[in-house]
Amino acid sequence: MRRIGYYVLQLFFKEFNAQDSAFSCLAVFLIECTTALSALEMFPDYNGFYGIQLNPKDFSFAHQFVTETEFFIKDSDGQCELKFPTTELVYAVVSLCSADDSADIREFSLVETKKDYLKVNIRMSRNFFYKLQLFCKPSNSNRESYKLLANFLIECTRPLDQPRQFPETYASFSKEQVSLESPRDGELSANSEVVFKLTSPTLKKLMVNSSVHSRTEAGFEFVVRTGPAGSDLTVYGSADKSANSYVGLCKYRVV
């Protein structure tokens, strides 16, 4: 609280998995503030609650999602990784925003999926509170819509000096269970050689700049020369070794 005085705090609730989305008032508190904070960091502008919104088992998450994952995370190095055990492949996207929504930070997050886990990485540039929302596709659903599963409140106490965005990923990045080792920065230097390292249990070959690279026992590792500044570099993949068709996996910006 930034001013001395009295405050009214209302606590609302609803039963877990309740069909009715309305909240009921549970309690009202009168708070007396006798010492105000001189430097006050804002929370994200959000009227909902942090925690699980729906049953994780309906999205193929293991029981540990509930018992081992905290929804308030205090980070001291500007980077945060959340890893959730799953029972099968989960399709997920995240939304990341700072308290004041002053910058577009969507590409400072990266989602990687396997059949037994889902991993979310984020990078932060300011001493701030961040809201991370996890959207997932229900199990055995043919619909393309994603539902909000959980909200996380993250406090960054020591941000990165110069955080770099992750590459932009497409739906096939998750479908093909891609694990990206390098490069993990979304911007590549122009006219330079870059080493790509990634794995996938399903992809048989990749194509970058019209060059095709086959998978080895260790996965994929090859060198690509970037083009001029202002161009894009896209990694394509195919699960069929003999096919000539590819799907987009991720895209980089050349600067």
Automatic annotation (TrEMBL):
One of its GO terms (cellular component) is cytoplasm. Transmembrane segments: none annotated. Pfam families: Ig-like_KY. InterPro entries: CAP/Cytokinesis_protein, Ig-like_KY. It comes from the Eukaryota. Residues 59-167 form the KY-like immunoglobulin-like domain. PANTHER family: CYTOKINESIS PROTEIN 3. This is KY-like immunoglobulin-like domain-containing protein.
